[in-house]
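About this split. The held-out portion is used to measure sequence recovery: a designer receives only the structure tokens and must propose an amino acid at every position. Recovery is the fraction of positions where the proposal matches the reference. Here is one held-out target exactly as it appears in the evaluation file.
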């Protein structure tokens, strides 16, 4: 539900940390994308590709970077419009508690589980032996919490989340539907009779302020923990194998796969469909382009792309050359024909 308030543009600017350009008395009652905004709403541009919509938008105000012409529309000027817009969304759409305090009668709670009174356990949840759930944490519905799992405060687990035995989760963690944390890692040894399963006896540790999308699988360590650092954000459909370590404030985009025992540093970005082999390290600040395959350790700060992944500039030159292959082949055939003649 949106906030049903009407707020002057000058007040929104102060809240977002920007300055007003134009009529600061304009009243704003909502927020919308620039191409769909109506009178009374505010919108934003964080990418120059959307500047064309300024000519046609019906928005009453905009959030813009200093260099963008507002075409006379009142606006909030700020260096980071995307961040400012995120703050305004929080203002117009404040968080609401989804599950009331207490335990729904349809849920199954082991007698040894410790659940803070301010936590909310929704319908059809299962909290196992020895589990702990912190203050104001919400299990929306059909959430499974395994034996001896420890869940911090102010977490939200959406329907169908599975937190398996021994998992340790910090505060302010959000996990979306159908994600599994703590499933067995993929470990087998060859034997005369086939593949012998290597028992996975580790666990998963997730630090504060992490958000994990839907249908993600984070495997428990074979021995010791799989770790996800503070503030890291993980998109949908990601696979994180056993004993992977991910640092703080990294971004893992959809359909990434990280193989076992790989170490990912702080502030790393793995774009969509990146694959990372096991037992390597990606240093702090590494950026990997979409659909890249990473097979070697990458030093801090590098930008890489391609399969196999290379330095980004070198990879783009190779890509440009490959795009010219048909033309070069035609030229080669012409020269060959002339030579033969």
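Reference sequence for scoring:
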């Amino acid at each position: 539900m949106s906030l049903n308030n009407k707020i002057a543009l000058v007040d929104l600017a102060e809240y977002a940390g920007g300055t007003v350009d134009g009529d600061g008395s304009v009243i704003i009652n909502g927020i919308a994308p620039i191409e769909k905004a109506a009178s009374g709403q505010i919108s934003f541009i964080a990418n120059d590709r959307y500047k064309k919509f300024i000519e046609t938008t019906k928005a009453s105000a905009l959030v813009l970077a200093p260099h963008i012409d507002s075409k006379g529309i009142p606006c909030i000027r700020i260096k980071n419009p995307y961040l400012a817009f995120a703050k305004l969304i929080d203002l117009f759409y404040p968080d609401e508690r989804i599950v009331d305090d207490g335990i729904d009668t349809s849920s199954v709670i082991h007698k040894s589980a410790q659940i803070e009174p301010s936590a909310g356990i929704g319908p059809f949840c299962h909290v196992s032996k020895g589990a702990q759930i912190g203050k104001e944490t919400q299990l929306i519905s059909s959430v499974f919490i395994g034996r001896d799992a420890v869940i911090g405060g102010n977490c939200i687990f959406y329907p169908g989340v599975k937190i398996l035995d021994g998992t340790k989760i910090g505060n302010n963690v959000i996990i979306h539907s159908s994600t599994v944390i703590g499933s067995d890692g993929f470990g087998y040894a060859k034997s005369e009779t086939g593949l012998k399963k290597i028992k996975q006896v580790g666990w998963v540790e997730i630090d504060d302020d992490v958000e994990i999308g839907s249908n993600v699988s984070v495997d428990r360590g074979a021995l010791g923990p799989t770790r996800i650092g503070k503030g890291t954000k993980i998109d949908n459909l990601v696979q994180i194998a056993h004993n992977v370590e991910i640092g703080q404030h990294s971004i893992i985009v959809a359909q990434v796969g990280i193989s076992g025992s790989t170490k990912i540093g702080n502030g790393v970005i793995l774009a969509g469909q990146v694959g990372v082999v096991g037992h390597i390290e990606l240093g702090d600040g590494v950026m990997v382009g979409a659909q890249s395959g990473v097979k070697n350790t990458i030093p801090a700060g590098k930008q890489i792309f391609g399969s196999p992944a290379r330095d980004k500039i070198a990879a783009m030159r190779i890509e440009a050359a490959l795009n010219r292959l048909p033309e070069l082949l035609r030229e080669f055939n012409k020269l060959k024909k002339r030579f033969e003649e």
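Annotator remark: The mean pLDDT is 95.
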